[in-house]
Amino acid sequence: MQAVLSDLVRTLEKIHREKNLDVSATCDAGLAFRGERQDLEEMVGNLLDNACKWARRRVTVAARRSAATPDGRARLEIDIEDDGPGLSPPDREAVLERGRRLDETTPGSGLGLSIVKDLVRLYDGELALGVAKGGGLAARLVLPVAQREV
Predict the structure, then answer these.
(1) pLDDT at 102 (0 to 100)
(2) Global confidence as pTM
(3) Does domain 2-144 fall into CATH 3.30.565.10?
(4) Sheet harboring 22-27: ordered strands across?
């Protein structure tokens, strides 16, 4: 898990280097996603890229094992936050629609978040958008966790 986050952070810092962003990642030791690495990269990469597009100065990603649910299953929680303008509650719902873009002046197809949503559904996970501590957008992925890192 740590390797995936580090690789994505390094790539996105290069892609968005003109913004001189502070992009940081933290990850619980030994944490692993129970699924395909490329699917994890697609989900987290799309969310991180959006955060970098809208951030003013800072983007954070944190991955941790959640507390066990009532059925005894632990989950993987990944929080991605930026310090950008954020989105209103109606806009947070709208951006998850396939092909929906709120700002036509920024590059993109409007498919990234709907792809994330589809992959999350395939893994019986959750995707929630909210308000970051710094006032920007917060995205939370909840996904299956592997018993040990592979």
Answers:
(1) 52
(2) 0.88
(3) yes
(4) 22-27, 58-65, 75-82, 137-144, 126-131
